[in-house]
Amino acid sequence: MEAAGKEEISVEDEAVDKNIFKDCSKIAFYRRQKQLSRRATYQASLDSATIGKDSTKFQIISETTKVSLLAEVYGIEGNIFRLKINEETPLKPRYEVPDVLTSKPSTVRLISCSGDADSLVLTDGKGDLKCNITANPFKIDLVSQEEVVMSINSLGQLYFEHLQIPLKQRAAKENKEDTSVDASQEDQEDLGLWEEKFGKFVDVKVNGPASVGLDFSLHGFEHLYGIPQHAESHQLKNTSDGDAYRLYNLDVYGYKIHDKMGIYGSVPYLLAHKLGRTLGIFWLNASETLVEINTEPAVKYTLTQMGPVAAKQKVRCRTDVHWMSESGIIDVFLLTGPTPSDVFKQYSYLTGTQAMPPLFSLGYHQCRWNYEDEQDIKEVDAGFDEHDIPYDVMWLDIEHTEGKRYFTWDKKRFPNPKRMQELLRSKNRKLVVISDPHIKIDPNYSVYVKAKEQGFFVRNHEGGDFEGVCWPGLSSYLDFTNPKVREWYSGLFTFSAYQGSTDILYIWNDMNEPSVFRGPELTMQKNAIHHGNWEHRELHNIYGFYQQMATAEGLIQRSKGKERPFVLTRSFFAGSQKYGAVWTGDNTAEWSYLKISIPMLLTLSITGISFCGADVGGFIGNPEAELLVRWYQAGAYQPFFRGHATMNTKRREPWLFGEEYTRLIREAIRQRYTLLPYWYSLFYRAHVAAQPVMRPLWIEFPEELDAFGVEDEYMLGSALLVHPVTEPKASTVDVFLPGSNEVWYDCKTFAHWEGARTVKIPVALDTIPVFQRGGSIVPIKTTVGKSTGYMTDSPYGLRVALSTKDSAMGEFYLDDGHSFRYLHQKQFLHRKFSFLSDVLINSCADERGHYPSKCVVEQIFVLGLKKQPSSVTTRSSDGKDEPVAFTYCAQMSTLRLEKLSLNISADWEVHVR
Ligand code: NOJ
Asked: Which of 13, 26, 548, 654 could form a disulfide with 569 if both were Cys (CB 3.0 to 4.6 A apart)?
C-alpha cells in the first residue's frame, strides 16, 4: 500500500477496535430520552383542530414545558398515513429530510367522522381505516375493521427537545421560565445538552439538545423486520436496556456479527407482520437514530375464550417500537398494507423502486484490493477464459489512481487505461473503478482545486474546509448535499473530463458514510457544516445516498441520457435503490459471515434495496477452499455477485485451489448465468412493481407462522427456494419446504416433496440446494457464454414445475439490457407462460412493449407430469401443428423436449396429450 505523506494509512489500525464506536450508554440523547421522557405528558387541543384538504392540524402541548408542538396528520394515496410533529414556532427551522421522497405524495382528504374535545376520528371515506386521535393524554390509534392495529404514543414516549437559546444568553434575558429543559439539567454533563464528550472528541452543539422520539405499539404483532444495516438476524430482536438498534452510518472494518451497532448504511423503515396483516413504519429522519423493540409476552387464549378473531390468531401479543433521533422533526409514514406486497408498493410510492440494472451487472464481478496493473488485469481476464468460467466485470480498487486521487490513473501501473478497457470490451466485459467522496488536499490536483475554488467542500464549524484523513492522507469531503456540487460531480464523469474512461467504465462509491480515519467513530464531526448551513448531525445518514445519486446521474449524463448506470455504494439511506446496488462492506472469510449474509441481504431486500450482495469469499482473511466454494454457491443465488478480497490476502481467483475446486466454482457461476433470464425478469418486477428479488419466506407465505422466522433459506422471486450450505463439512441440510398445498422439486435430482415439512437433503460439495415451487415456470439460458454479452442470441429453455393441480405460470422480461429505450420507447418484451390442462402457452404479458427477438426456446423441461404423453405437438400462431420428439421419465415424472425452435417473442402453444 502506498504511504500517504509520512504515515501509512491503514484501516486495520483504525477500525478493528470496537471501542472506537459508541454503545447506547455513550449516546447523550439516548440517555436523555430514557431519563427525561417520563416527565412530560402531552395533550392535544382537538377542539381547535383544522381539517384541511391536505392535512388535519392540531396543537399538542407538553404539560411540563407548556411549549406547543404542531401535529399534522395526512392521508396519502394508497392507504398511507403520515404524521408530522414539529415545534410550532421553533427558534430556527429544523431539518426536514429533502430528496428522499420521489415527489410530493398525493394526499387524500381526511374527514372527521366523529369527535369532540377529547377525541377526533379521521377517515379517508374509502376504506375501512380510521385514525383515532385522543386528546389527553395525546395518543393516536390506527383502526381497521374495528380493531386497533397500531397505537402511537400510547406509552407516552413522545419526546421533543425544543430549540433553545443557550443558558448564558437566556440568563441575560432573564427569561428562564419558558425553557423546556430546566436550568438544573444544564450543568449535568452526562446529559450532553450543549456538549458531549466521547474519548478525546468533544461535540459542541450550537443548537443545544434537539432530539425527538415516539413510541408505536403494534397489536397482535411479534414479527418485525427491517431497519438495516446491522449484522444481525432478519427478524428483529427485542432490545434490552442500552442495546437499541443503532442507525448511524459507520465504517466498521470486520464488523462484529449479531450486533446492533450501526454499520455502513441506514434505512429507518421497519415492517411488522402477523397473520392477516403487514404494516410498515417509515421514520423519515437522517440524523443518528436508535430503535428499541419490545414484544410483550403473548397471552394464550383458551378455546372457550376464543372469538372469531382470537381463534384465527390464537395468540394475542404486542410489540412496542420506540424511535429516537438526535435532531430533525418527527415525520413518520404508516404503511397499512394489508399484504406484504401492498406494503412494498406503499414504500416504493414514497421512495421509488429499484433501478433497472444493466444486464451485465447481474453477471459475476471480479474484484480485489488491488489488481496490480494492466498486465495483472490481462492475466486474470484470460484466466477466466482459460478455465471456461464466465464473468462480466473487472474491478479496480483505490490503487489504480495516482495517489488516491480519484478520476486519475497511476501511470506506472495503468499507463494506457483505454487499451485495457478495449481488451475487456473485446470480450463483452466491463470495468468498474472506485471513486470515494474524500478529495486529496493537493494544490496540483485539479478536482481538489476546482472544488476548493467553488466552495464545494463540507466546512468545519469555524468556516474553513473540513479536513480529515482518509486513504490519500489529509482530504476534504465533497458536500454532496448541495445540488450544485452534485451537478459538478456528475460532470466529472463525462469522457472529456474523466481522462482514460470509456463507456464500459462504471463506478463504485466507497467510504461514503463518510469514513474519516481520525474522526469520532471514524466519521465526520457532527458540527461540520453543509450547504444551507445545516450541521452534519442533521443529515449524517444521507451523505452516502447523495454521492451515489450524483454518480448515477453522472453516468447517465455522459451517455446523453441513453444508458443505464451501474453504481455500487457502501453507504445508503431510504431510497438508495433508485441509484444502483449496495453491498455489505468489510465482512470476514469465516463461515459465520457467509451465514449472516443471508439475513443481511433479506433485510436490505425488503426495505427496497433489491440489488444487494456480500463480498464472496469474505473480504478479510483467507478462506479455505471449501468455504470459498460454498460462498460462490451462495453468491450465485444472491442479487449482487462479486468476489472481493482485501490487501495482503492470498490471491483467490477461482482457479487457484486445484482443478476440483475450480470445477465447483465454475459450476456455481455457470448456474448463475443459466438463470440470468429469470434474474432479469425478477429485477423488472422489482423495478416496476416493487417486489423484492430476494424474499424471506414470510413474504411468499404470509399465512404460515412457521415461515416467519426462517432466515437460512429464502425465495428468489416466487419460484425458487434457495438454502445455501453455510456449514463446513456438511453432509446434509435441513430444508423447510413451506405451504401445505405446495409441491417442491429439487432442481438437481428432480425429487419432489409436498410442502409444510422439513426435509433432510444430502449434500456433497457440488450441491447447491435449490428447489422449484410447483406451479412456476422459470426461463433459463441453455448455453452459457464468456459473459452476458455473448449470450444475447443464445437459446432459452423453460423449466416448468407443475403444481398439485397440474398447472404452472411464469413470466419473462427482455430488453436491450443497457439503455433506457425500454422506458422511453417501450422497447421491451414481456411474455407470460402458462401451463394448464396439458397445454403450455406463451402469450404477451404487456401489449405496450415491442422488442422482437430472434431467440428461440429450444428446450422445455416439465417436472411433475404424472402420466406419459402419447404425443406432444407445437402450435404456432397461424394454427399450424407440428409433432415434436420428447423423452418421458416415468420414475421422476419428467418430460423433456429438446431441439425446439419456438420464437421467444411469438405466441405459440405446446400440447401434451
Ligand atoms: C473499504 C471497502 O469496504 C473495501 O471493499 C475496499 O476494498 C477498501 N475500502 C479499499 O478501497
From this structure: 548
- Testing ligand 1's pocket by substitution, the residue of 12, 370, 397, 435 carrying the most ligand atoms inside 8 A of its CB is 397
> CB neighbours of 363 closer than 8 A, spacing ≥ 6?
390, 391, 392, 393, 641, 672, 673, 676, 787, 788
Give the nearest ligand 1 atom to 570 CA: 3
Q: Is the CB of 399 under 6 A from ligand 1?
A: no
Atom of ligand 1 nearest to the CA of 434: 11
Q: Look up residue 79 and give its amino acid.
A: N
Closest CA to 123 of 56, 179, 217: 56
∠ CA(669), CA(815), CA(781), 5° rounding?
35
Domains along the chain? Answer: 31-97+104-160+211-301+311-351 (2.60.40.1760), 359-433+483-511+535-692 (3.20.20.80), 719-912 (2.60.40.1180)
41 vs 361: which has the higher pLDDT: 361
Residues labelled catalytic: 510, 513, 586
CA 366 to ligand 1 center in whole angstroms: 14
**586 Cβ inside 6 Å of ligand 1:** yes
CA of residue 619 to ligand 1 center, whole Å:
9
- Is there an atom of ligand 1 within 6 Å of 510 CB? yes
- For residue range 682-718, list pLDDT tens digits in order: 999 999 999 999 999 999 999 999 999 999 999 999 9
| 3-class DSSP assignment, residue 18 | helix
CB atoms within 10 A of CB 221: 22
Residue corresponding to grid cell 410550532: 88
Task: Say how many Å lie between the first and final Cα of the chain, rounded.
Answer: 67
Side-chain-facing half-sphere of 509: CA atoms under 13 Å: 36
Residue 813 cell numbers, joined: 422480461
Query: Residue 910 — very low, low, confident or very high, per pLDDT cuts 50/70/90?
Result: very high
Model's pTM, two decimal places? 0.96
pLDDT-wise least confident of 8-12, 214-218, 322-326, 743-747: 8-12
Residue with cell 459538478: 488
Measured CA to CA, the distance from residue 411 to residue 420 in angstroms comes to: 13
Label residues 663-677 b or e (16+ Cβ within 10 Å = b): bbbbbbbbbbbbbbb
Q: How confident is residue 175, by pLDDT bands cut at 50, 70 and 90?
A: low
